[in-house]
Amino acid sequence: MSDLPIHEIVIIGAGPAGISVAAEAIAKGYDPEKILLIEKSHEITHMIAAKYPEEKPVLANYKGKQVKAEGLLSIGDMSKSSFIQLMNKIILDSKIEVQFNRTVNKIVKLKNGQLQVCTDLECYITNSVFIAIGSMSASRKLIANVDVESRKRIFDDIQNITPEMKDVLVVGGGDSAAEYAMILKNRNHHVSLSYRGSEFTRMLDANSKPLQDFISKNEIIYYPKTEVESVVSKGDLLKVSFTNREQKSFHAIVAALGTDRPINYLASIGIQLCYQGLEIYSESSLPGVFAVGDIASSSGGTINIAFNSGAKALQEAYDYYLETPNSEQLSSR
Ligand SMILES: Cc1cc2nc3c(=O)[nH]c(=O)nc-3n(C[C@H](O)[C@H](O)[C@H](O)COP(=O)(O)OP(=O)(O)OC[C@H]3O[C@@H](n4cnc5c(N)ncnc54)[C@H](O)[C@@H]3O)c2cc1C
């Protein structure tokens, strides 16, 4: 028998989906000591802490997606700080161990049917794994000729835009691009928006209407049917050449181009996702390993969907893979 630490459940990623799995497992009676949460960053809900602008409320029906709660957790509209506090309280109260600043680099199925999960520091044995890493680690990058110096001022969100970066170019035509452009405008930046299309067909009315209003008043300068071809740093400015041969200068660029699922990372740790229709979670190529939350969503998720996803996947693992709570038999299998 292996001497490795044994956990009934290993959760990778401490965002809403991972926290939902943890909360559901505790409610089913699992000993917190048998649940391990591994988080790549230094904090719970890191993506939300890092990517949501401070003035943006957490919306229950984000992008118009209204779902009925299918598990213990569900939110209404609230501030970003209240949401983060609530998630921290759930984890603190649960007494589950969280290992911060750890990255999983391998998951393998053992001959006895259990799973071995290895981080950069240690390996663990478990009966089920929940991959809840979201999709923000694979933000789409600006495809353009960009010199090394300019890269330091091209961001995929507005977190690092300082008041000194007066002229900002936002690139993209979705809701994030619209929200970033309007927030920056309200923070008194001079904002330009470049989009390769002309109509904002991928945007919610709640964003496209106020955005059009800003554009019609010339408060946000809109460059439709443009694509950035190259970016060259000149002092504190970035000289941007568009494919239509126009050139403009900005202090910073926000490339709000959406995200891809981090399938390369999953492949590197030995996992392929299997999609079965419209489920909000997915069992992977390794039985007992589930993808939950945004990483399992083909059309972009929400917090309440991530909560439901964690609850439903935990129930499936409970039905097929997990020991009955409080069983002492895990170590003797
Ligand atoms: C700007 C913005 C605004 C949004 N506003 C709303 C809103 O108002 N309301 C709403 O319902 N939804 C909103 N969403 C969507 C919502 O945030 C997501 O659907 C939700 O956070 C998904 O939860 P998750 O747990 O799947 O992933 P995430 O929240 O992305 O959490 C993933 C966690 O895993 C960690 N992680 C990543 N990679 C690894 C790894 N390799 N190993 C270990 N840990 C890892 C991350 O650090 C993070 O803590 C917004 C999204 C964005 C980008």
What is the CATH third-level topology name of the largest domain?
FAD/NAD(P)-binding domain
Q: What class would the helix/strand composition place it in? A: alpha/beta
The biggest sheet amounts to: 8 strands, mixed
CATH architecture level-2 label of the largest domain? 3-Layer(bba) Sandwich
CATH class of the largest domain: Alpha Beta
Q: Total number of helical segments?
A: 8
What is the arithmetic mean of pLDDT?
Answer: 92
**Would you list the SSEs in sequence order as H and E?**
EHEHHEEEEEHEEHEHEEEEEHEEH
How large is the radius of gyration? Answer: 22 Å
Terminal CA distance reads 9 Å
| Oligomeric state of the chains in view | single chain
Count of beta strands: 17
In CATH terms, the superfamily of the largest domain is FAD/NAD(P)-binding domain
Ligand roster: flavin-adenine dinucleotide
Tell me the β content. 15-25%
Shape: elongated
Number of domains: 2
Kindly describe this structure.
The radius of gyration is 22 Å and the shape is elongated. The chain is 26% helix and 25% strand. The protein folds into 2 domains: 205 residues, FAD/NAD(P)-binding domain (3-Layer(bba) Sandwich), CATH 3.50.50; 116 residues, FAD/NAD(P)-binding domain, CATH 3.50.50.60. Strands 1, 2, 3, 4, 5, 6, 16 and 17 form an 8-stranded mixed β-sheet that branches. A 5-stranded parallel β-sheet has the order 8-15-9-10-11. It has a 4-stranded mixed β-sheet with strand order 7-12-13-14. Helix 1 packs parallel to helix 3. The protein is of the alpha/beta class and 333 residues long. The relative contact order is 0.19. A hairpin with a 5-residue loop joins strand 16 and strand 17. The protein binds flavin-adenine dinucleotide. The site of flavin-adenine dinucleotide (FAD) has 35 residues, from helix 1, helix 2 and helix 8.
